[in-house]
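REQUEST ID: PR-0412
SUBMITTED BY: lab tech R.K.
PRIORITY: routine
TASK: structure prediction, single protein chain
INPUT:
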Amino acid sequence: MPSRPQDALASILIEDVPSEEIPSIVLKVAQRLKNKKYDDSGLQHAKLVASLLVLCQALLSPPQLLEAEILLHNFVLTYLSEHEPGDLRVATQVVQVCEYSDTLLGRLVSLCARKISFTVQALVHEPGGFAIRPIAQTQTYQKTTRADDNIIEQLDASHAIVCLKVLSYSNTSIFSSIQGIEMNLLYLVGATSQELSANSRDTLNALIVRSTRSTFTDHSLWTFWDQILALTSRAADRHHATAGYQLWACMISRQHDSLRHLYTDHKQYWKWIQQGLLSGTTEQRKTCLFILQASLQFLAAHTSPALCFVPHTFTKYSNVYQNCVLQKYLNQIQDALPDLLTLSQRDSGVGASWILALLGAALEHDTQDAVRNIIGGWILSHGLPVVLGAIEDVPEFLEKSFLAWACVGSLYASSLTRSFSESPICHHGERLSQFLIDILNHDTNFETKHNTVKAIMSFIVNGGGSLHATARVFLLQALVNSLVPTNFELDQEEVELVLAITYQANFQQMGRDLMTLQCGELLTLIHEGGQESSKIAAVAKESAAIKAGTTRLNVNDEHEKAYDYLESFAQDAKRPMGDDHAALDHSKSRNLSLVTLNQWIRASKARCLWHEGLYHGCVYINQVLDMCEHDFECEELEFAFEAIWDQLEVQDYPKTILMMLPSILFHKSSVRLLKKDSALIGVLSKALHELHALAENRIYVFPPLAEALYVAFAIVPQAVYLPFVATFSRFANNPPTTRIEFQLENAIAPKLERLAPGRTYFFYYGASEAVGHAYLLRTLNDLPITPAWTNLRQELLDTLLHAWIHQKQPVPMSSKFKSSAQLQTMLLLLEGLRAHLSHDEITVYTSSFQHILALEPHPRYRLLLEWILLRLYSQLPISPRFDLLKILSEADHHGNPKYLASLLKLSTMLARLPDSSEAFSLELMTHLIPLVASAKIVIRHEAQWTFPILWSHVERQGWYEILTNPAFLRLNGHIRSLDAYKNPPPARVLEMFDPTQDHNLVTLYCGRWLGIAPPEPAKVSPKEIQDVIVKYHAGNEKVGVLPLGLVTSPTGETKSLSLNAAAASTNTTNTLVPLQTKASTFALPTSLISDSITSPHPARKARNIILIASLIANPFNLGGLSRISEIFGVSALYIPSLSVLGHKDFTSVSVSSHFWLPIHELSGGGNEKSGGDSTALRDFLTKKKVEGWKVVGIEQTDSSFVIGRRQKQDEKAEGDNSTNTDIQSGRSQGKSVQGEYQFPERVVLLLGSEREGIPPILLAETDQCVEIEQVGQTRSMNVQTAAAVVLYEWVRQWG
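STATUS: complete
OUTPUT:
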């Protein structure tokens, strides 16, 4: 036994003491334990007593020794019971005292074993004491002395278990005389108390692993295994299941020969390993992988090689499982997919059940969605029957794992594709349906095919929240397409499941009808001789009714039915006594009139409008309005409308009525009755407001409402009394869009039409959203040119313009309060006002729009603003156009280069108008000469693109003075010879605009300018705009203030353009671009070649930081940035070329960080001297700003914020050259907390090159710049270090 401090103290205590006096001294010291407190000092005294007993054992008589041991034993056990149960430190101290004597240690173990046994017995008789009850008789111990019994009662079971845990780590031989302790501990692992369970598990693990004796007999091994199996079977109880697998792993680690029978004879052995891999905690799954590997190694060493297990194959299986399930890094999962495909082959040696366990674990609901999508997509791509070669385990996998992922609603919404010419396609739903068809067609076994069918049907019935409504349709479609052609016979259970599906709720009518037809198809597969129940007959009848009712009702043909229905209600109405109402008109002439209808409504107390009566009432009113022009009073119409509207609200706005009502309320006949102060104005205005609100959520209301408004506003003069300004400002600010559920309905429409021809999307919901937008724009375009409408046009224009003028600066790139629709509306309004605005009014509008253009950063909005200004300047005299040229001639034009570039484009368009003069073009071209060499690249590029366009116009006009100018000739020839001019970037093509030919509706609403990054889908096609003209104006395209334009596609489809097509440069404000304060000259790129960004490599969930290192060329620095980015959780790192990832300098610094971090290629362009081009980087920054990110440059500039410096905005630190104006300006403005700069929450950090930093062209794209406070003379630090400091500061602020 090693020497302890108390041994030395004991030796000093008895040194020089006569031997005959030593026993009395030892007893006195031991008796003092009675007065000691049960704290650390008392424990130290107990250790002293134990040392004295060891040293003086030969001098003590047996009674003396027994007395001292009892005193010591009682003290330490009482000390143990006085402390918190399960305290490992206390138990360790007690064991250390008892280890002085084998007798003390033996008594401690015996008492602890008895306490554990008594605890097991108590919990057996206690309701709820065990989560997993013992499956065999427990080991009991006889009681001994009363003193021991008292001590056992004082001890907590956790005290005893923790003491045994401490002993199991150091002295397992002491347990050799204690039989059954392992089984009792195993039983306590199943206790309801998790603390007691965890302590028992840890102690038992230590006993199994460290014990030198054979823990189990053949009989006890099976009992032990069955108890462990009972623990692991509690999949929902993760604590006990994990504990069971951990004990299982301990058993395997012993590698006893007796365990061989478990591997080969026990049927549940391999199944429960798979179950542990399939679901549970990460700790449990790792344990199961260990069990699998250890079991296979044991089998390889102790059994015949004829077994079907291949250890090295399962080693690969374990690696794939770890990558896909345990680590869950997306790039590792992608890399593991080829190995997964190899393992899934029939000859791999890995059975189908193991692959399904892996796939099921990866698809578990608490796994992150990105992982589930990768694995689920892999399954859909490769198909289970093809790769597995076994089908018997597939039904359970489908029902419990795969379909729970495959039926999540976001997968259907995100995979929708739309076009004008065809119905949307839900790609995920189609893939899922085909996947299930392949499984069912592949299965030739009668029994397993029935099991697969039942699994799919059961999931539809019991799927719950994970089953999206649209998913039911695709699952049923798979069953119909696979089973019906083969005349598969359904058994009784399957028939019951189909009937249960039939009566499930589906939140849209198309889906309900399609499910009914699909279930009807499946119910035709009842085996011969089967009795048809009334439920089956009802489904068949409902299916037949759906197929029969495929013709939309024509309102004009329904008026006779409406008359009969409403009249019958009135005749049957019971009038109260004393009713003096006039007698009803029962004549058979059926003269339609509102007076008659209102009499029926009054007589029946509006019951004639209940339920289907509301439809008949609407048909009746529509017929009256069609037939009668002015033979009814306004009050009668008002009463009828209010009665209809009241019932509409009572019946919760039925779809059919909502689609009919706009054409009735805003019928030409009703609108013509409007006059000033009429009560009918209030009725229709309220209805218009309510219908507008409904149209924003129920898209089927929008097209009929828009058409009714077109008829009213564009055709009927009295419509000026309706709230035109409020209605169309709301449409412009919030254009109605189709919600995702209606898009999904449209996607399943072709399936419904195949089963019931005529049941199209139009049958259920009428015209599409695009038709509604066509009527809206035609309304604005076709409004009458009258004084009243002129005032309304101007009021609407001023309303929309006010918000744009008073934007808060700095103006954001994107905002929910700004849209292209607003600018399109203002352009059409100005076209209608052109002939009615005075010179002063045009001048004011011109000034306002130029102010907006000067601030606006969005390239698409800038193009529309330039178009508007072009039309305004075309109405002014020639002289104001020359004022634009004066702005261009100013020497200091660097404050707002994008505004100057826009004025260049505007001046060029004005020069190309038919009324433009040669003098204007000459002066413009003269100004272009210096601008093509401007230090501002935005201005330089615009001037270079503009000059050839203007030269072509001069050539068409034949202006000799300009054509013979040698400077102009040489410049034109040089620009046209450049490759960039011959192969223009996509953005330049999108921005091309002819001021005469492109001034039309098709260009305004469907033009190529919509493709400017970030692209915006067109809301309407040319064909739908043209259809309005054909329907209401017999194809006269000259109607309205703006011509139709060329309808280029017979289908009306507008092709979408790539995000990378944008090359428009943007600026957030009109403030000064910061100047670099580094001692280096700046260079500007001149090349116009655009490189696209590579597809992002997926990675783990990261912070809202993107790091741009596209300007850095040194592989060493890039490797360091990779390492730093991965450490701080950057979401993505962008570098100039991915080829650097293999460079030795890169990998020497990055270590393995680039394997865990999404790294993308993004060309930064270098500088002008190297011929670089920053177009791709600028486009990327623009795209990110549109998405709501803030671009922050890490650069020393005259307006950079100094991170880490605490100062007020009006205080200037030494060496800081920024002015108070700079700090207050929109471009430099940064949030501060207690005088400290605060980063934006979503930030794109832009790093400069090693020598030149961030070039000016890219500084113009930054929202803010930051630098690191420095006190030395170097004024520069390595880019890796600078990035690390900035990243740390962001993490400190945002976490």
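NOTES: Residues 360 and 929 are 69 Å apart (CA to CA).
REVIEWED BY: pending
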